[in-house]
Amino acid sequence: MIEKLDSLYKEFEEKITGLGNQADILNLKSEYLGKKGHISEVLKSLKNATNEERKLIGPKANEIKNEITNSVAKKLTFIETEEINKKLANEKIDITLTDAVRSNNNYSGGFHPRTLIQREIEDIFLSMGFDILDGPHIEDEFHNFEALNIPGDHPARDMQDTFWFHDPNVECDEKKHLLRTHTSTVQVHGMQARKPPFKFIAPGTVFRCERTDASHEMVFNQLEGMMVGENISVSHLIYFMKTILKEIFKKEVEVRLRPGFFPFVEPGFELDIKCLICSGKGCSVCKQVGWLELLPCGMVHPNVLKAGGIDPEKYNGFAFGLGLDRLVMMKYGIDDIRHLQSGDLRFNSQFRTF
Ligand code: PHE
């Protein structure tokens, strides 16, 4: 009978090693230890055994019962731990991976070329002590025109085709609202909030009712700059403009200064750069001229200083309005401004990715 018990145990051990789920293991356990199980059957036959035999077989049967119970418990714990580990491995999230890598997509996103240029310019101006300002897209007539020396009847208003808001509740002209046509509005906000001397830049989106072509968009971006203090001169203006262009293009670029008219500067200039797309030969971006208007600028008109609460007898300054999109086009050799807003990933993914 001892041999029988031993072989039952051996058989049990062989069977349990092949099992992998809880239910099968519990069934196996009852097959051996249950009321009608193999071990119980052996014990039942003890009735007919001698006392000597019982002394031997009793403890042996108990030992085997314990072995089986332990072995079942061990196997159940093993399976449970294995299941937990499997679940943990499946649910593991690597927070260091980007979405794109996680989804096995090769394009992991990147910065729009305008963002790259804007950040570069902001860094350069920050290093020269300029503040960076922001302004509202929806403006009133005062900030977009009046304060910039462009009264209602001024012909210069025609230079900027404007998206107006029709507000039936507003009768007074000065309170009419519009989408800002230039970032020069921030000059006014900046002056009103500061005391000279000060200098700041203001990058931002502007809106004009334009017919779109390779170099015109209705929604585009400028970067305004203003410096006000005592004894500021045109040479300060030229110095800052040249420094910026040199830093951006990483080389001396050919520039020319022409007289330009903007009611808010006097004297006013147009700073052109030689078209880097066609090296001055003429192309659709420079309208076959070879030069590109990039940086309208000038000395702040006394009326503008006055509107900003600054004494023009004591202070003067310069202002400029960089065409940010055009600069991006020159820097990266992009021949159509419409690519910039296309949202086309084939375009966007050519620039620096994460
Ligand atoms: N605001 C002008 C424009 O959008 C540009 C400009 C800014 C000109 C500052 C002179 C000085 O055309």
From TrEMBL:
One of its GO terms (molecular function) is phenylalanine-tRNA ligase activity. It comes from the Bacteria. Its EC number is 6.1.1.20. Residues 110-330 form the Aminoacyl-transfer RNA synthetases class-II family profile domain. The keyword Cytoplasm applies. Binds 2 magnesium ions per tetramer. One of its GO terms (biological process) is phenylalanyl-tRNA aminoacylation. Keywords: Aminoacyl-tRNA synthetase, ATP-binding, Cytoplasm, Ligase, Magnesium, Metal-binding, Nucleotide-binding, Protein biosynthesis. One of its GO terms (cellular component) is cytoplasm. Its cofactor is Mg(2+). It catalyses: tRNA(Phe) + L-phenylalanine + ATP = L-phenylalanyl-tRNA(Phe) + AMP + diphosphate + H(+). InterPro entries: aa-tRNA-synth_II, aa-tRNA-synth_II/BPL/LPL, Phe-tRNA-synth_IIc_asu, Phe-tRNA_ligase_II_N, Phe_tRNA_ligase_alpha1_bac, Phenylalanyl-tRNA_Synthase, tRNA-bd_arm. Mg(2+) binds at residue 266. The keyword Protein biosynthesis applies. It is an enzyme of class 6 (ligase). It is found in: Cytoplasm. Belongs to the class-II aminoacyl-tRNA synthetase family. Phe-tRNA synthetase alpha subunit type 1 subfamily. Tetramer of two alpha and two beta subunits. This is Phenylalanine--tRNA ligase alpha subunit. It comes from Halobacteriovorax marinus.
